[in-house]
């Protein structure tokens, strides 16, 4: 463990070598297809700027955000790589264009908005057309692809890509192939007008187990962070989880049999035990659903969460010996090596995506390359607001 802060607040340790490794491993797997690194939702909670830099340095061809604002944030941090906004850009097309962001058009209004922005700015707008082949979320219907491409051409847009999103790539190969079969003619219709448009469909689950979905480009999200959308994909995976989440023990006390712990008194000690109060709660992103269910690790040993998860604290049963097994100031691993985030997510009846993206802004991100801490993103410190952006010192990995 490196970069343990002196204070008692929680922190997320992010291994930028792991990000680079994961990008490289997927790039090698999917070649000659290229890799778009998905850094939306603050880089799945890891910190979009640091992840984008690491992914770009490791060979990502493109970055993907969900919103124009996320793209602008990366540009303001100095990221020059091609960026595709995967979600709606309606009403923000001009800002996107000014920052050289590619936008997704999934309806006529989006195309017209991009066309109008391009006219106003006197600059070409680059768009990817999204086709809905079965996700039933966003996209032109496959049979509308020709019309969309014609309209784009009429508006003077450059269609750089055409894509779809797969709804059940991890566990429904038949439906995945149906989606691909619907996508192929739609993509060809677009490429009849825009021959250089790249085709993309696969996110992590599909690229791992259905090579035929890789096409020209894959959109790597969860896998970039070293995790997998479903446990059966783990076989043979060389990915390395990038994040370890930590908190600290704030106080330890021995309680007598019959003592209740926390809000609602949902836990009662059956015998004398030691209770450690740990500095992370649902306000930091640790799910309240793990009240009386979760586990955390201190010095390699797991201890159960007892009582309710609070906004800032959880309480652990750290044993019943004569002396406490934990002391104030001890680092507590919330997830990481030996306690996967997938296990934490499962205990809270959710998925790793939600746990990662739910880690609050006030939780510091500590960036590591090898054994060196290369940057810290901390919104609030004892001195006040420390940095609204990651420090410029976070180097290219
Ligand atoms: C359009 C699109 N592509 C790719 C991804 C990345 O998916 P994953 O994290 O499963 O790789 C997402 C994530 O939700 C997405 O919305």
Descriptors:
2 domains, TIM Barrel, single chain, 27% helix, Lyase, Ornithine Decarboxylase, Chain A, domain 1, 397 residues, alpha/beta, 9-stranded mixed beta sheet, binds pyridoxal-5'-phosphate, 11 helices
In short:
The protein has helices at 16-30, 40-44, 48-57, 68-76, 93-98, 108-121, 145-154, 173-193, 204-209, 341-347, 352-357; strands at residues 11-15, 34-38, 62-65, 83-85, 101-105, 126-130, 158-163, 198-200, 217-220, 243-255, 260-261, 267-268, 273-278, 295-298, 301-306, 314-317, 331-335, 364-369, 372-377, 380-381, 384-385. By secondary structure, the protein is an alpha/beta fold. Bound molecules: pyridoxal-5'-phosphate.
Q: Quote the distance from N terminus to C terminus.
A: 19 Å
Largest sheet: 9 strands, mixed
Percent helix, as a range, is: 25-40%
| CATH class assignment of the largest domain | Alpha Beta
Structural class: alpha/beta
Q: How does this structure look, described?
A:
With 397 residues, this protein is of the alpha/beta class. It folds into 2 domains: 17-224, Alanine racemase (TIM Barrel, Alpha-Beta Barrel), CATH 3.20.20; 243-385, Lyase, Ornithine Decarboxylase, Chain A, domain 1 (Beta Barrel), CATH 2.40.37.10. The protein contains 11 helices and 21 strands. The strands form 4 sheets. Strands 1, 10, 13, 14, 15, 16, 17, 18 and 19 form a 9-stranded mixed β-sheet that branches. Strands 8-7-6-5-4-3-2-9 form an 8-stranded parallel β-sheet. Strands 11-12 form a two-stranded antiparallel ribbon. β3, α4 and β4 form a beta-alpha-beta unit. The longest helix is centred in the middle third of the chain and has 21 residues, at 173-193. Bound molecules: pyridoxal-5'-phosphate. Pyridoxal-5'-phosphate binds next to α9 and β9.
